[in-house]
């Protein structure tokens, strides 16, 4: 493994492998130097996606987090009830 230095595809900063934020997108591994560069990348990515699909995808993601939050709230409630 000789490619230990990586260039951030968003801001061009050079950083060491292991320091960045690694995200797999459609089978490709992208590494950004920081979270804010990753967010910038995804904001642009979203603009290139089909807007109808995006609407459905956004709804699914919201639902997923909602379910997760409800689970957490439910657990918290149960904990309080057993106290
Ligand atoms: Zn960057």
Question: Could you explain how this protein is built, in words?
Answer:
The protein is an alpha+beta fold. The chain folds into two domains: 1-48, Ribosomal Protein L24e, Chain: T (Roll); 50-83. The chain is 55% helix and 19% strand. The protein contains two helices and four strands; from the N terminus they run ββββαα. It has helices spanning 35-48, 51-82, and strands at 5-7, 14-16, 21-25, 28-32. The strands form two sheets. The protein has a two-stranded antiparallel sheet with strand order 1-2. A hairpin with a 6-residue loop joins strand 1 (5-7) and strand 2 (14-16). The longest helix is centred in the C-terminal third of the chain and has 32 residues, at 51-82. The protein is flat and about 50 Å long. The protein starts with a strand and ends with a helix. The model has no long low-confidence stretch (mean pLDDT 91). Zinc ion (ZN) is lined by residues 8, 10-11, 13, 32-34, 37.
Number of strands: 4
Fraction of residues in β-strands: 15-25%
Cross-sheet strand order for the largest sheet: 1-2
**Helix count from the secondary structure assignment:** 2
* The CATH C-level class name of the largest domain: Mainly Beta
The description of the largest β-sheet is: 2 strands, antiparallel
Form type: flat
What is the arithmetic mean of pLDDT? 91
Give the helix proportion (percent range). 55-70%
Using the CA coordinates, give the radius of gyration: 19 Å
Q: What ligands can be seen in this structure?
A: zinc ion
């Amino acid at each position: 493994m000789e490619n230990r230095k990586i260039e951030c595809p968003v801001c061009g900063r050079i950083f060491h492998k292991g320091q960045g934020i690694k995200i797999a997108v459609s089978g490709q591994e992208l590494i950004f130097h920081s979270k804010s560069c990753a967010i910038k990348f995804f904001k642009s990515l979203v603009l290139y996606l089909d807007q109808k699909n995006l609407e459905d995808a956004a709804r699914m993601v919201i639902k997923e987090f909602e379910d997760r939050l409800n689970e957490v709230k439910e657990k918290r409630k149960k904990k309080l009830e057993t106290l």
